[in-house]
């Protein structure tokens, strides 16, 4: 058995790099579960908190919200400003995941690249250059893969699993406002098309 300190170091380094998934590295995940109290104590000193969802199999660090009257510590984890298209794709994937969970008993949602392209194309301005549009959508898909919300299936680059961690970043309250956001996204897409014309 590995030394607890070495395990703690490996767990902390993995969490500092980003999301840790149970399926990606089962021994590391088991070490995280065994050491989660120590991990919580360690990251609390840095103004962070451990978010761990054992049922869904993911964990990540988040900036701790200061208590009332407490001064906020310096921000260690940077916030990323997402562009319109990436935000839209994330919103559409979250909606698709909610629909899948309501209609299916299967825990995994698998989408083909063409499905994702079609889903996003509905909200983008019409263009004559479909190849260029598809290339742009592929860039957005790659960004969402890099963020950890989509995972390419091994051996099938045109198939993606929508990762359940998406539920932690786009919560139910946000999803309830989804239709209003979609109206705003459609208006933004139309304005973008008019600007391009």
What does this structure look like?
- The protein folds into two domains: 60 residues, Arc Repressor Mutant, subunit A; 113 residues, Arc Repressor Mutant, subunit A (Orthogonal Bundle).
- The protein is 55% helix and 15% strand.
- The chain is built from eight helices and six strands; from the N terminus they run αβαββαβααββααα.
- The protein has a three-stranded antiparallel sheet. The protein has a three-stranded antiparallel sheet with strand order 4-6-5.
- Strand 5 and strand 6 form a beta hairpin.
Strand content: 5-15%
**How far do the termini sit from each other?**
65 Å
Strand/helix succession = HEHEEHEHHEEHHH
How would you describe the oligomerization state of the chains in this entry?
single chain
Number of strands: 6
The tally of structural domains comes to 2
Tell me the structural class: alpha+beta
Tell me, briefly, the overall form: globular
Query: Which fold name corresponds to the CATH topology of the largest domain?
Result: Arc Repressor Mutant, subunit A
Largest sheet: 3 strands, antiparallel
Name of the CATH architecture of the largest domain: Orthogonal Bundle
Pfam family, one: DUF4194
Protein name: DUF4194 domain-containing protein
InterPro entries: JetB
């Amino acid at each position: 058995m590995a030394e607890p300190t070495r395990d703690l170091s490996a767990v902390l380094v993995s969490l500092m790099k980003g999301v840790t998934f149970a399926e990606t590295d089962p021994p590391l995940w088991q070490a995280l579960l065994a050491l989660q109290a120590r991990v919580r104590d360690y990251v609390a000193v840095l103004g962070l908190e451990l978010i761990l969802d054992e049922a869904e199999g993911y964990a990540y660090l988040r900036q701790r919200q200061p208590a009332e009257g407490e001064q906020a510590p310096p921000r260690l984890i940077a916030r990323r400003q997402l562009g319109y298209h990436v935000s839209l794709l994330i919103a559409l994937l979250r909606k698709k995941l909610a629909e899948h969970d309501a209609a299916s008993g299967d825990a995994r949602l698998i989408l083909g690249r063409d499905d994702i392209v079609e889903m996003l194309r509905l909200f983008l301005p019409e263009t004559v250059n479909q190849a260029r549009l598809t290339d742009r959508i592929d860039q957005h898909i790659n960004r969402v893969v890099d963020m950890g919300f989509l995972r390419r299936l091994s051996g099938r680059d045109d198939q993606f699993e929508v990762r359940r961690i998406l539920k932690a970043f786009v919560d139910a309250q946000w999803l309830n406002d989804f239709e209003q956001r979609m109206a705003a996204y459609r208006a933004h897409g139309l304005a973008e098309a008019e600007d391009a014309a």
